[in-house]
Amino acid sequence: MPSVRVFLGETDFRRTCQVRVMPFDLLGKASEEDSGGLGSAMKKKIGGRVVPRGVIVDGGRVYTRLAVAGKIVKKSFGSLKDPNALAAAVRAANRHHDDKRLGRQGLERPAEHISVERACEIYWEHHASKKPTAGNYGRALRHFKGLFGARPLDSMTYLDVQNYRVARERDGLSPSSINREHTVLTHLFNSLRTWRRLKVIPNLRLPEGNPGSEVRKVGEKQFRRKRVLSPEEFDQFMKSSTVQVRRACLAAVLTGLRRKDLQNLTVDTVNEPLNLLQGVQAKTGKPYSVPIVGAMREIIETAPGRNVLDFTNFRKAFEQAKARAGLKVPFQFRDLRRTAARMMLAKGADLATVSAYLGHTTISMTEAYVQAEREHKQIAGEILGSLYRAPAPDQESEGCQVSESADFRIKVSALLSDNVEKVQREIVSKTLYS
To answer: I need a surface site. Which of 78, 168, 396, 419 has the fewest CB within 10 A?
Structure first.
């Protein structure tokens, strides 16, 4: 490095020192690697956008590399392919430089007032847009913004949540759907509070508590669907259906998958070595694994193309099949998933296995999904009653004895056989094309 002699002061005292001189062609590298100094004063473009110093790209991800309290801190904001990641990094870098210029580094930033509309945008950017059910989140957020709009976020109270529920009820929305939107609103406030604490977002002014948590939702137990098709009803419906509808409905019963997951079934979801259908649930984003059994193998081998099932104009064909079948009690396509669960339980599968088959997180979800009917409780009681008979008054020391009544055993066996015949009749492949 070259050295220069520097004259310090007007006195006779002279000193010399070594001064580093950086060549001009290295300034570009310095601006990318350093968050301070001469080179970093230069701005650059990333993804066609001019960004402030301290914003860098490393391995396809966007980072800020800034000097905080004498240390270089590198923070990731996501993939460069995500435009929100680059925008968030630019905001963070600009905020850092403003604090440094105004001498606010190390000081708590004053809380920022934002509207409900802006809060919904932040929630969408950081959470809702990344969920498999982003469409449902988007609809709920649009209603929030439409009702509250420019209302200051920190002025929200539980009364506003109550008024929102009343307004949505007037719109004709069902109580269960209102509960789902209520859940989104509650999660919005919780998320903003968490992100503020973790400094993911600026310091925002929020309500003292969570307005959504202070309002009770309507109990959904009374609104849960309980429709289960009997084997006779399913056979009657299959005979009245086209091949397209038969394939889809039979696949729904054999796999227990939701309609969206059935639509996503392709040759890539078939794991031949393990004889499994493997994929990700569209509703929850969690993986599922279902064995390929019986007629499901035939359905896969006769797939019309890359997709295993054809859902083109399916709704119209499905409704026409229901009309031709003339079932007394109407049903929906989603009821086939519940029907599959009930058939497995009636066939002897334990609840934990059925829960794993359906892809439920907990067994309690499955319990709510397939509630026991009165006739099934009666059958269970008869099974227990058939094991013992009451002791006679003169047999106090002998205790209860196993029932030896052949007539009673025959009666119970006939009862069980009759009910199981209704609930668990085998669905054979001939129903597919008959």
So the answer is: 396
Alpha-carbon separation of residue 223 from 49, 119, 174, 179, 303 (angstroms) = 51, 32, 9, 12, 37
Range of the domain at 143: 116-223
If one counts the domains in the chain, the total is 4
Q: How far apart are CA 317 and CA 168, in angstroms?
A: 32
Instruction: Let me know: does 14 contact 7? Beta carbons within 8 Å.
Output: yes
Of 102, 126, 148, which residue sits at a domain end?
102
* Distance in angstroms (rounded) separating the CA atoms of residues 368 and 365: 5
Beta bridge partners of 66: 73
In a domain, 429, yes or no: no
Rounded Cα gap, residues 44 and 56, in angstroms: 9
Separation CA 53–CA 356 (nearest Å):
51
239 & 360 share domain: yes
Exposed/middle/buried for residue 150 (C-beta within 10 Å: 0-12, 13-18, 19+): exposed
In a domain, 1, yes or no: no
Same domain, 236 and 369: yes
Burial classification of residue 319, based on how many CB atoms lie within 10 Å of its CB (0-12 exposed, 13-18 middle, 19 or more buried)? exposed
20 in any annotated domain: no
How far apart CA 308 and CA 315 sit, in angstroms, is: 17
> What is the block-wise mean pLDDT of the chain (434 residues), using blocks of 10 residues?
44 41 39 37 71 88 85 86 84 85 66 90 92 89 92 93 94 90 95 89 89 88 79 91 92 91 90 90 87 88 90 93 90 90 83 86 77 64 68 55 48 48 43 44
